[in-house]
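Handout, section 4.2: multi-component inputs.
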Amino acid sequence: MHVTRGFTGRPRVPNAALPPGQYDAGDDWPVLSAEVTPELTPEEWSFRIDGLVERPHTWNWDEAHALPASAYEGDIHCVTSWSKFGVRFGGVSLDAFLDVVRPHGSATHVVAYAHTGYTTNLPLADVTGGRAWIAWEYDGRPLAPEHGGPARLIVPHLYFWKSAKWIAGLRILDHDEPGFWESNGYHPRGNPWEEQRYSGD
Amino acid sequence: MTETLGTAQPFTPPTRFAVPGRIAVDDQVASEWQAATITEVRRETPRAATFRLAVPVWPGHLPGQHLMVRLRARDGYVAQRHYSIASAPDDTGHIELTLDHVEGGEVSGWFHTVAEPGDTVEVRGPVSGFFAWPGDRPALLLGAGSGVVPLMSMVRHSRARGSDVPLRLLVSARSPEELLYAREYGPETTAVFTRSAPAGVPVGRMSLAHVAPLLAERPPGGWEAYVCGSNGFAEHASRLLVAAGQPVDRIRIERFG
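Output:
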């Protein structure tokens, strides 16, 4: 282990909620997206699930809002090493959408894609069982465009590049298919607690 | 109605973002930490300095890529950050980082107040192939503040190769004193000052009047645009590009949080 001469780090209290290599961003919420923020209104937004499902379906804004409301309150972790504690997203559990389309037994993975064309892959098990949301509110207010508004995917137990902004759909697959950052060297799964940042971690 | 889509059918994103990554990142170099030695510290502006590092096993990089830096305290506490590489690729085994002294920044604070030649830090990289420019196609670069760092690597690369691939840089700084690499710019660069400017140069934000003429120059095949800076700047500059006619799928953005 290499100790850096004269480095003490900022004053800190041990925080068991902070994954390895992360720091507490406090009130900051950095924006990290590689593409131009789209001008997408709620009226233009839609969300589709297809692929290996019984009944592919597309929801518009009102139809998605008619599903049972569900909120995530907890922490989020970005691969660039900031974490943010006690955030609150409002939306609908992804389970409610998947209940409608009914994935086949052979389904193992999903590719989430955005209205910008951004993509990210996830094991199906990481977006079911109350672990993923389609969110349109942050802290009780509409989600800002630069943070993925009008609606984004939230998968808080994985690094936040998995939580695709401006979510447009999920394609259900029986195999893993790398998305945008995963094709650019990022880890296929991205578990913050195991520091799965880059491919090979 | 049952509609079943086979997995063999490629899925089509609603729009065409996904300018592909320009290069593959080597899994090996991206996952291994090594100790690098600071060999030189150069002041750039009152708030920014350049740190030159000797990296024992440097596989080379492309302009625009970054490096992860990790500092470790005696009690085992570690802090790591991504930093853009400022230097052009060369074969010396050295790379340079230009860092702002961020208020309260624990990593940039260490570099600015403690680090001196001979100190070692852990590094990993280069990483990220998305913002890279190998020098093969016309590039239009828009940067603000320390956002110019990866863009300067591109300018230096172009110069070092004597390249005739068109390259233009629009760089924004608060004042001439805060403009990074001020002495290095040539005719490819236009500087924009937001708070104070030299006599005869207007003060103001980057605008369509700066961007539109560059897009009007349109080289064969069009520009690949690279935007780097704070999120506020990145939002503003990318919207200017779109307004001036640059296709959204040919704009790469790197935002500093």
